[in-house]
Amino acid sequence: MISVDADVATEVTAPALLEVNYELGRIGAVPITAAELEQARQYAVGTQALSVASQSGLAGTISALVGAGLDLEWFYQHAVNLQATTLDEVRAAALKYLRPSAAVTVVVGEASTVAEPLAALGAVERG
């Protein structure tokens, strides 16, 4: 499961959703470069290290792993796995998981303001 969230002003909800969907689709359609992959690796490895730099961060990370059904071995192997990931694997994953047409979108906001603009993007159900 992939989750994307955005905190936007009510009046730009529909344009923001359109942009998110565009970017997700673009990631699958336009292959990333080796430089982009390396930047993403460095960011992911760096944020992983920062996530356990404090006791509370370590506790939060372990809690998130347990909640996702992962163990500490996954955490230890994560940086190694990131380093081994190829451009082809990234593209295959993007094509498989980043498909806006298959997404379930939940918008929280003032329905009377956002429903009509969102309807231009697809069916809107009010809950």
Question: What does this 3D model show about the protein?
Answer:
The chain is mainly α and 127 residues long. The protein is 64% helix and 0% strand. The protein has one domain. It has six helices and no strands. The longest helix is centred in the middle third of the chain and has 18 residues, at 34-51. The chain is globular, with a radius of gyration of 18 Å. 2% of the residues are buried.
Which short descriptors sum up this protein?
mainly alpha, 127 residues, 64% helix
Compose a concise summary of this entry.
The chain has 127 residues and is an all-alpha fold. The protein contains six helices and no strands.
Number of strands: 0
Q: What ranges have pLDDT less than 50 throughout 5 or more consecutive residues?
A: none
H/E topology pattern: HHHHHH
Number of helices: 6
The main sheet comes to: none
The helix content is 55-70%
Number of domains: 1
Shape: globular
